[in-house]
User: Fold M48 family metallopeptidase from Saccharopolyspora griseoalba.
Amino acid sequence: MAEPEVEVRRSKRRRRTVSAYRDGNKVVVLLPARMSQTEEKRWVADMLSRLQRSETRRRSPARESDAALSRRCRELSAKYFDGRTEPSSVRWVPPMRTRWASCTPSEGTIRVSERLRDVPGWVLDYVLVHELAHLLVPGHGKDFWTWVKRYPKTERAIGYLEGLSAAAQLGIEADDDLDEAEGD
Ligand SMILES: [Zn+2]
Assistant:
């Protein structure tokens, strides 16, 4: 993973606590106002490695292989689609210019961009649910979203992906994922 851009913010209200969070590709580290440069350096390094460890823990086991990705799709299909969606193939593909994933409903195939290998599991799950729903409803109409929104973190995941796309200036459009004319 590339070294993220770090923004240090110091606050007079902070006495001892140090915290950090990711904002797109940037990491914001919050420090107490009175802290030496040496302490700042040590804390920034410490917070970056903590953040990375927690993000690594949150990644999906589906990142490991196409087989693991297919397995995850079967679990999600059982949970959110009563087992009604059965893709003929699901695989990781090299980063696509304008897409996180794509689906060919008539063939039942789903492809997921390598760019998503390191996102939290709940974000990858949303993308898989989105593509699985296309096997039932090809377009992005009301019926489609009724299925997708059975996945409770849909809104949050869409926000996460928009942030990721904006931060990396990828220009990826959420709804540009169908390889065929939309049916709605
Ligand atoms: Zn779609």
Summary: Residues 130, 134, 140, 175, 177-178 surround zinc ion (CB under 6 Å). DSSP finds five helices and six strands in the chain. The first strand starts at residue 5 and ends at 11. Residues 37-58 form the longest helix (22 residues).
